[in-house]
Amino acid sequence: MNEIASSNQLTVAAAGSSSEKANGALFSILARVERTIEEETNAFRTNRDFDIGAFNARKSRCLYELNRAIKDMGTSDLDGALETGLVRLKRKLEENETVIRAHITAVTEVAVLLRDTIERSEADGTYSANEFGAVKEA
Fold first, then answer.
1. pLDDT by residue (tens digit) across 23-39?
2. Neighbour tally for 133: CB within 10 Å
3. Is residue 27 within 8 Å of 85, Cβ to Cβ?
């Protein structure tokens, strides 16, 4: 009887330590995601020569890992600290989205200006057939 009770205690202890390990892994992933999001947001604000593709790949990978870890763990196992961390991450993602949208809007405005300039230059006769003489058909 003692062996069964002892075995059950080990199983419960192992499950507890497994849950703690899962929480620790989730905290680690969460911290990495937050760091990545903060770095990307700051890069958009301050550094015009950063590699957007590299940040996007890194952010996607981190968010994928976080999603997998949460699915593996189950939302019922989330403790208060993890929930707080996820709420904090959500705020950082919203801020990141705002900065990225502003960047996209600025790029779109520049693209429209360039397009309009090109259209006006083509329409002013500079590159028209009349400028270079009539094209003779052979």
1. 788 889 999 999 999 99
2. 7
3. yes
CA-to-CA separations, 39 to 72, 76, 96, in angstroms, rounded: 27, 31, 10
Contacts of 45 (CB under 8 A, 6+ apart): 99
- Go through 3-40 and write b for each residue having 16 or more CB atoms within 10 A of its CB, e for each that does not: eeeeeeeeeeeeeeeeeeebbeebeebbeebbebbeeb
Residues written for the chain = 138
pLDDT tens-place string over residues 70-121: 887 766 666 788 888 889 999 999 999 999 999 999 999 999 999 988 888 7
31 within 8 A of 66, measured Cβ to Cβ: no
Cα dist. 81→2, 6, 30, 105, 121 in Å?
A: 37, 31, 11, 36, 60
Q: Residue 82 corresponds to which tokens in the numbers above?
A: 């993890």
Dmax over CA atoms of the chain, in Å, equals 106
Question: What is d(CA 129, CA 127) in angstroms, rounded to the nearest whole number?
Answer: 7
CA pseudo-torsion sign 88, 46, 61, 97: positive
